Amino acid sequence: MVLSGKLIGYVEISKSSDVFHDILRHKPHEMVAKVPKKVHDCEQHEGESGAVGSVLTWHFTHEGKKKISKQIIESVNEENHTIVFKVIGGELVDELYKSFKHTFHVEPKGDGQVATWTLEFERPGTSVPYPTSVMDYVCNIVKDLDAHNNVI
């Protein structure tokens, strides 16, 4: 029995949607300097930087443990500042979930902006928890990037 799920997290940000979209799509390696306690490296294995089909491996610390996540850029929408990553390797899909995808999107809200993370996943059974700690982690990275003075 596979159990599908979806979590959505929102973070109000002060920086423009272009800044966040550009970092995640074209300059993910810069996150190492901006959030070094959370993100340690980002390697591009295949494809052009930021292009659909590009494969990246992230090295990071989550819940006090060093981990990796190999991901492919599944889709990009420049106009709507959306990028979709499908996890194809690492602890999330090798040890916990049957599938895992995350979408980052920024949109205007009132006088500011809201960054939205959507996590879509399939659990192999009820013993595998919802990835709430992953959601907390990615939302905290957005908050840290937004607070960083030299985020561009």
Written overview of the protein:
This protein is of the alpha+beta class and 152 residues long. It has a single domain (3-147), classed as 2-Layer Sandwich (Alpha-D-Glucose-1,6-Bisphosphate, Chain A, domain 4), CATH 3.30.530.20. It has helices at residues 17-26, 31-34, 91-96, 132-147; strands at residues 3-13, 39-46, 55-62, 65-77, 82-90, 99-109, 112-123. A seven-stranded antiparallel β-sheet has the order 1-7-6-5-4-3-2. Strand 6 (99-109) and strand 7 (112-123) form a beta hairpin. The protein is globular, with a radius of gyration of 15 Å.
What's this entry about, in short?
This protein has helices at 17-26, 31-34, 91-96, 132-147, and strands at residues 3-13, 39-46, 55-62, 65-77, 82-90, 99-109, 112-123. It has 152 residues and is of the alpha+beta class.
Features:
152 residues; alpha+beta; Alpha-D-Glucose-1,6-Bisphosphate, Chain A, domain 4; 7-stranded antiparallel β-sheet; 7 strands; globular
User: What is the annotated CATH architecture?
Assistant: 2-Layer Sandwich
Kindly name the structural category.
alpha+beta
Strand order of the largest sheet: 1-7-6-5-4-3-2
The main pleated sheet reads as: 7 strands, antiparallel
Shape: globular
Counting DSSP E segments of at least 2 residues, the number of strands comes to 7
Q: If you average the pLDDT, what whole number results? A: 91
State the CATH superfamily name: START domain
Binned, the helix content reads 10-25%
* Uncertain residue segments: none
What is the level 1 CATH name? Answer: Alpha Beta
CATH fold category name: Alpha-D-Glucose-1,6-Bisphosphate, Chain A, domain 4
